[in-house]
Prior knowledge:
alpha/beta, FAD/NAD(P)-binding domain, 5-stranded parallel beta sheet, 36 strands, about 30% helix, elongated, binds FE2/S2 (inorganic) cluster
Amino acid sequence: MEEPRIGVFLSDCNGEISSILNFKELLAYVEEIPGVVYVKQNNEFCEEPGLKIVRDAIKEQNLNRIVVSGDEPVTCMVRISRVLREAGLNPYLAEVITLREHCAKPHKNEPDKATQKARAMLLAAIEKAKLLEPLETLKYPIKKSALVIGGGIAGIQVAMNLSDLGFPVHVVEKEPYLGGIAAKAVKFFPTDDCSLCVGASSCDLNGVTKTSRKCLYRSGFSEISNVNILTNAKVVGLKGGPGDYQVTVEKAVYPVFPHGYPEIRIVDDQFRKFATEYTLKTYVPTQSEPTTVESICLDAGAIIVATGFREFDASIIEEYRYGVHPDVVTQLELARMLDAFGPTAGSLIRPSDRSIPKKIVMVLCVGSRDTRYNAYCSSICCMVALKHSLIIKEKYPDTDVRICYIDIRSWGRGHEDYYLRAREAGVKFIKGRPTEILEDSETGRLIVDTEDELLCKFTQIPADLVVLSTAFVPSEGTKELAEMLGLELDKDGFFKEYNSKVRPTETKLRGIFICGGATFPKDSPTTALHAASAAMKAARFLNAGEFVKDQKTAIVDSELCGDCEFCPVTCPYGAITLAEWKESHVVAEIDDRKCEGCGICVGTCPLNAIDLRHAKEDQIMAQIKALTQNDESKEPIVLAYCCAECGGTAMDSAGMAAIEYPANVRTVKVPCTGILKIHHLLEAFKLGADAVMVVGCKLDGCHYEEGSMRAKRKVELAKKLLQSYGIEPERLEMFHNVYVEGNEFAEEAKTMTKRAMTLGRLQRDII
Ligand code: FES
């Protein structure tokens, strides 16, 4: 590596920090540090004309690394990187710190200690800067086509939106027809019209007028020239990476469904369950066609997962007799009966004797809001029940319809109207979850055994037909598909978003998007919004033409790496594979396209064979040394490892708000706490720390999925090791913060400082 010629630029923030820190002492100190050839103080360096001073100094002083102490570190880093580029230096050869937020403001009432800390911070930044290496900008071509998995309402809308924008789209649907659950739902709320309504395409299709919405068959969807629809098809393999996926699809040809679109027919057991003689004769063929399977490979730059949801299997709840008594049906089965194209041609029947039911009881929250099955609320089942009760009351006004509920959740726009209309139509509501659905041994008639919480009594309701509003659960094959794509599932088994609050249709994998019921059960308007969002995100990705990222990635030392196979399992992005190297030696290989530079693999590798290009082991160790050894005050030192995301921003916000905490606390920022090894924790003690705090994101809020959780486990293990050395384990602690928790960070810093003071300085020779 070339001899360092480091320029140090110290902003005094218009006197705001030089009134607290002794700048004269700091400047004199920095000038003496080997490798530093230029030191400059100014009001600020993150705005012009300060940036010009940096730009000129790099050129005039022939600097090859710079350290800048500014105010807000991220903005400052962005601007300084730009200046480095303009001055002909690699933009990664700068270390930016903030003496204002991380030193002067939070320690304003202990200026001497704050100056000591500032010396340590500057030394750490300079020692790190000496070890910085230039990084490249990586560019990969993006194929301008998309593959949508799932041909329900969400999948159709995504495909239509992307095709409208000119992208070729493959739609892979495992059923023989498009429309998903909507194809069987008869009508939808809140518009009370057909469930198979889609937004009209803006493609020029002669004969298709561009009104606000279309029935799927009138939309001309199958005729859009850049949409390739594959029904009876399943994704079975995936290769490649963002912008360049090769997807293997198995396409089966198998038997018959009645009013499917496109017109392919299958044998449908659910249909047979309720079919009349007429519908059987009209819709169902007598012979099945043989199944054949072909395998095809499709290229796609982006993938959108729109696999929807399905009904919970109510037969698991034995006391409700679903699957045992023919007159216990689900809401989707009822919807099929109420559909003019359904198995009963729209007639409501009691399956056991095909009579018209006079008394119908609907049971809500079957398998949902029930910790035995699914603790979550499926969000739309109350509305499905209200919708069906209204259709029944309209067509069969004399029918006695009762709904057993825990709470009626009609939260959406126009949804409460359904509840009010149902009440007006005479639907009766009974608050209570039925304990059992019994069968009258003499008549065979059903009896719903329930509590009426409002009347404080148990009651038994005779019923001709019981309709279960079941939970909605992830569609079949979700787990296998998630494994194939490398996506996470949430605790309920649905696809997990990159961030449910702000990036609801992106995933942790660039180039793969999700939408609709694949992430959670949704009503139609929310699904349409989701689909539009996913299409926009995918289009933006595809449109870039190139997938550009910096080289902040992991790197493997093949000589050290040795067959252990830990890292491919722990990488949250599937960026690591194993490859033969020499003499049958298997080594890890990093796919730079997929690597997000979190360092979780670094923290996992038992052989120290992996490093991060932008946070190398020697850089981390150089900072620890500088922060723990440069001290004349003899005060206990608390070393804080903070992640660069939420955990670290809690410290930033404490500084911004000038929330005080002891200057004993000195920080090493790492990309994610997942990078930390036990050795980092112990080494900090060995080198001079009297207490160590690890500050990461919330356990379920790590920006790299599991980093915070992994760090917590390592902290727990390291505490046991400390104990075995005779060192108080409470000298080490992990905390989890977010940006707005500056107060909490300050309290944690005080706690750890107090512990270090109470326990006294550490005897290092025992580690
Ligand atoms: Fe904060 Fe992982 S990014 S702990």
